[in-house]
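Checked the freezer inventory, then went back to the computational side. Two predictions to log before the end of the day. The first one is the construct we discussed on Monday; recording sequence and tokens without edits.
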Amino acid sequence: MKKIKFLIFLLALSSCNQYLGTVDPDYTPTNEVTEILSDLDKNKLRSEVKFGDIIFPKAVNPSMYINTVKIEKIININKNSIVNFLNEKIIVSKDKAIYLIDKINQNKFEYELNLNKNEKTISIFKFNEKIHILTNRSRIFIINSQNILELADYDIFINTAPIVLGKNLILFNVFGEIYDVNLDDYSISKKDNFILKPGISIKSNIFEDKTNSYYLFNAGTLLTFDKNNFDYNTNYILEDLNILTSLDEFSELVDTPFSYNEYLYFLDRSGKIAVFNPISSDIFWELDINETILSYLFSNDGYLILMTLNKILIMSDKGNIINSYLHNKETPISIFNIQENIYLISDQGISKLNLKDKKDDIFIKNKFTNNLEIFYQDEIIYLKDDKSLFKLSE
């Protein structure tokens, strides 16, 4: 198998002069597939882990503190609703309406959008102090006083969120084309093309290292941009990894790979993890936990926290599992962090986990659906599922 992978790599080198990365001739991938807990040395587990401040997938304010969590419903929504937080307002789309909600007094204003059949809001963002709404038909609207005005119609079908970069709006259509919209005059130009790989659509984050910004068009298509000018870089980082790894192919990434100590962390839904340097083509460590990864957190001290269907695992920056927790929730959805506490969201509510005593400290009952999003706003946490927007408070 290794010989076949190496031959494929040589063919790729000879056929593509833009292929990035080199292979150390002495490199031998290490297969670190592990049967979690069954083969795990329990003596190496730590009863307490101070894992630091969470920085991925979203940075958490380290001063955030909630002692007793209460769940407050803000508004009923649907699975296609988009939520954003601008100034002191929460902006929410629902069907053909846009709602502006005051975060302090909860006053709500409603605006009607003139949408076509099968058209929906795909992004809400601010430019020049104006709230902009972008649809999947690449129409742009703004909220102007008491009205919504249409500013542009590019007639491009898009199904993923764009990238807002200063005065530029980067759009990705379903055929692998990249467009650049200048928000000063709303002119549009084609920027580049990319190779579209199979993969499910996900709401990915945009992460960066010293030179590049990374974005997932779908779970199998990783796009790389120059960090300074956001020009598209035609490279093969994910392909590099799949040639060099001793594990099976990484094809359904949980999120955009994030950077830590010059290595990119790749998390595959199937349970494969690889810590990979795209410049040197060095795999620092890799592991297959043989469990579906549903959610993750990563701290500034290099700790990776994973949630699977029945476990919470905490791993060091060397790839060692240093703590584990059997949560036994029938339908786990996601995890989040407040200071050193980990909270697990299931379809039945929220549990505060006590990893030291291996039990739930508190449980707050509430019905949640899948496709959950977590928003951190100063010292407030909002949760959005397919039916409602919630606020967590004391």
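The second is the one RB wanted added to the comparison set:
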Amino acid sequence: MPRKNIVVVGGGTGNHTTLSGLRALNCNLTAVVAMTDSGGSSGRLREELGHLPPGDLRQCLMALSGDEASSGLMRRLFDYRFSAGEGLSGHNFGNLLLAALTEVTGDTITAIEQAGRILGIKGVVLPVTLTKAALCARLEDGSDLIGESTIDSRSENLDVAIDYIYLDPKAYAYPPVLDAIAEADAIVLGPGDIYTSVLPNLLVEDVAEAIKESRAVKIHVCNLMTKPNESAGFRTSNFLALLTEYMGTRQPLDFLLFNNTPISSRLVARYAAEGQHPVLLDEAESLTMVGRIVQRPLLAPGVFVRHDPTALASAIMEIAAAVPVATHDAPQETPVLDCDDWSGPPLTSIPYRVQAVQHETGAGHLDATLTVRSDDPDGG
């Protein structure tokens, strides 16, 4: 069976979780990474050296790194954060190495490639843009927040929601990102902070359009918890509405991947004290914006609410395996189903041309377009 081309779009810990699970499976992986981080070590290097922020790139490189002893040591080094030292405190070793490689080689892309060789990564890590742009948010009261870290760390006036986000200046897609999207069999959007990790990729010129035009199946991995400064009160439909809005389409996404493992009352209470609550599934509203909802046990064991990388990767590949590998060099053809042989809806929600044949006369057929959906989110 041909290896599927999986493109994971996001940033930070969301991409790290998804990629670390998919790395062990039989697929071709590409990470498309948001370049708007402006806080912590990344923000300091961005401001002091004028580089693109390395933090989210570092996390993706670590997630795709090899299992050999040398790679394991390098992975630990990449994640090591200095806790003391003037000028060093707060910096990740991996961020500093990427900054040094950028200085030595002369560009970010070569630095990423060389870091990937050091770590023995499986897959490709691509910055969504090489433009140095700031992420900005316009709030519903008309005020603006400038910088990803400002949006991410907002702790006041949380009752004033984000109206929309934008990049300043306009950012242009790194061309290999568009190539990867065009060749993808599956595109994974999320998990991750919706306004500061996932949507910034769609603000980059041509990226949203490329995703819309791609023949890949589009999968949204929904967050487990809301976030008070970004997604307070959000249900699954709110995340889907933002994704379709920033993609500039009225066409529904193909799949919503949602955790159905209950979160313990103890964890719910602890997170509620920080203003975070489990994302609720509003199925009827969500199905107006997504073809099918797939629920799986995706919660990692432990004292934090996190996706389990292995379970998440397995669910993504389950969806991808049910979709034929796209033939990117040929015109897309709609599958034809014989109504007499059709026993039920297949997994995907792609359009089908239905051909009805009157066998007793051998004549007459009817062409129609059918979008297949299932009322049972796990029943096919």
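For RB: The CA atoms of residues 258 and 295 lie 5 Å apart. Residues 327-380 have pLDDT under 50 and may be disordered. Let me know if you want it refolded.
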